[in-house]
Amino acid sequence: MNKTININLGGLFFHIDENAYQKLNRYLNAIRKSLSDDPQGRDEIIKDIELRISELLTDKIVDERQVISESDIEAIIGIMGQPEDYNVDEELFTEQPYTQKRKKASKKLYRDIDDKFLGGVASGTAHYIGIEPIWSRIFWLIMAFGFGFGFLAYPLLWILLPKAESTSEKLEMEGERVNIDNIERKIREEFDSLSVHVKDGAGEISDKIKEGTDVVKKKYGNKSKSGLQELLDTFGSILITLLKVFAKFIGVLIIFVSAITLLSLVIGAFSWGSLEFLGFGEEFLQYPSEIFHSTLPYWLIVLFVFVAVAIPFVLLFMLGLKILSNNTKSFSKVTSLTLLALWIISILGLIFSGIDISSKYKYHEYKSTTEDLEITATDTLRISMIGNKDYKDLKYRNNNQLRVITDNGSKKVFSSDVDIDIRKSDTNSAYIKIRKGARGPNSETANDNASKLEYQFKLDGNRLTLNNYFLNEDRRSFIDQEVDVILYLPEGYHIYLDKSTRRYLYDVDNVQDLYDRSMTNHYYIMGENELDCLDCNTDKVIDVDTDNVNLKINKDGVDLKINTDDGDVKVKIDENGIIIK
After folding, report:
1. How do beta strands 463-467 and 457-460 pair?
2. Torsion over CA of 178, 180, 182 and 185, rounded to 10 degrees?
3. Is 551 exposed, middle or buried (0-12, 13-18, 19+ CB in 10 A)?
4. Around 71, how many Cα atoms within 13 Å sit in the side-chain half-sphere?
């Protein structure tokens, strides 16, 4: 009966009998002595060897209560190899001479985390196939962007394949035997690589050593989970990087827009002020002077507009700078409160001005004048419109208004907001009504503004010539002024609409229900309630005649005849209904 011992080997617990423990202990001590002349990395090599032995012992254990025997240790030593090549006293292993086997080890597929761009799948498959990693990466790029298969397979392998973390796993990935010789060589290669990084001033040596010495064994399920976590972390890092780039782009865009707006405000303010100072404001700027008839002075309203717009864009400009650089200093508390106070004052000033200005245009009144037209029912009244040749080429326009100077030197506003309507007269005579409309702070002022509109027309025989414009005093420019020309004709009177009236006809009722702009160049007679076109061809005729079908559609209705093998079918649709024969 042998005594059993509990030991911790490579981070795992084992039950081992006393003889097996002594053989294993002698074996490890012999390896440690073989490395005594060169202590660099000795402890790391011993840890990797212990980890490899614990892996091999784990494969042999069927039951967790199973005890490791001396024969199990001998089998492990046979796999790992004897340490006599390392100047170890051979007396320690005279019990069982051993000839090391040199057969080629089989490769295992891992992810090479020491040579990776995204997860190490490409370099890991390169080791497994036996090619350079560059060719494997080219292959994966072709599979991804050429065939699309790589976008699915690469992440899948990233999740499923374990990482080659320990020295034994790296040896298995490269297809080398996991024995003392190869473990020592691999450890020394890693230390040599680290020493190069130390000479180059790399700051990640401690992390590399920690990564190389952290050899706690994980199960394959945990490795797969680690691969998934690493994939998610990488995608998260990529997403965060893209968001940072997008944020920088937004910052640049904010700075650009804010700078252009502020520069435009400054240039506009100085340009406007300069032109006003030089006396060119009215001719070149064409601002609506009437809209500034406020209690507050004009310059103060302009200043309110400037401050109300400029301060938010200054803050946006600073925000863009902070997005691009974290070192950008914010405004002090005093500056921030001052800007806020100025902005609030400007907004309140604009609100007050808006209410004050709108109150001056609260009422809309009309002033009408009526004049009889000396025409008879047998005459055809020809209606046309004319403009003013002196004003048609002027460049400066506000909506449909022009600022002009008349022949006598007075300043006027020229407007083309003229509408024409033709209605049934409620008397036996024809007459024309000129209705002028305008706004004001009260009914009396609005009525007065309307009466000041200057509009003219002329009747010469059977020709009625209407102006397509009206004039107004310059200081009364923006008062929503308009002129409506309403022509009243008794029943049976004839008119002709010249093409010059096309743009000015407004909602003229007619029997044919023609659009206003389609009514010109035609003769009309006033009916019981509306105009009736005398020369409009509104009848639509469709005539289709084939071997089997004859279709006619005209003002009389629909006439359809179909020839079939069983006879003819006739369909008649008119005001009497539908008749089928």
Report:
1. antiparallel
2. 150
3. middle
4. 2
CA 431 to chain centre: 61
DSSP, collapsed to helix, strand or coil, labels residue 135 as: helix
Q: What is the percent of the chain with per-residue pLDDT over 90, rounded to a whole number? A: 18
The residues with which 383 forms a beta bridge, in sequence order, are 464, 497
Distance between CA atoms of 562 and 429, rounded to whole angstroms?
56
Whole-number Å distance between alpha carbons of 224 and 160: 5
Angle at 382 between CA 376 and CA 383, to 5 degrees: 120
Q: What is the pLDDT of residue 530?
A: 92
Closest CA to 413 of 456, 472, 453: 472
On whether the CB atoms of residues 33 and 93 are closer than 8 A, the answer is no
Q: Which residue has the tokens 């012992």?
A: 57
Instruction: Tell me: pLDDT of 197 over 80.
Output: no
Arithmetic mean of pLDDT, 217-231: 53
| Cβ 261 vs Cβ 314: under 8 Å | no
d(CA 55, CA 89): 27
Residues with Cβ within 8 Å of residue 305, at least 6 apart in sequence: 346, 350
Choose among 442, 490, 452, 444: nearest CA to 473.
452
Write the CB contacts of 87 (distance below 8 Å, at least 6 apart in sequence): 34, 37
CA distances from 2 to 8, 17, 152, 488 (A): 19, 6, 56, 132
- Tell me the three state secondary structure of residue 67: strand
**Among residues 212, 247, 216, 228, which one has the least CA distance to residue 113?**
212
Six-digit token pair at 246?
Answer: 């997008």
Q: Cα-Cα-Cα-Cα dihedral of 319, 321, 324, 329, to 10°?
A: -90
* Cα separation, 572 vs 37, whole angstroms: 120
Is the confidence at residue 190, as pLDDT, over 80?
A: no
CA distances from 107 to 104, 223, 530 (A): 9, 18, 100
| Mean pLDDT comparison of 175-184, 222-231, 294-303, 450-459, highest-scoring range | 450-459
User: d(Cα 220, Cα 226) in Å, to the nearest integer?
Assistant: 10
Q: Which amino acid is at 318?
A: M
Share of the chain above pLDDT 70, in %: 70
- The structure tokens listed for 568 are 């003819």
Q: Which helix (H) or strand (E) holds 439?
A: strand 430-440
Mean pLDDT of 324-332: 78
Global pTM reads: 0.44
For residue 159, give the 3-state DSSP assignment. Answer: helix
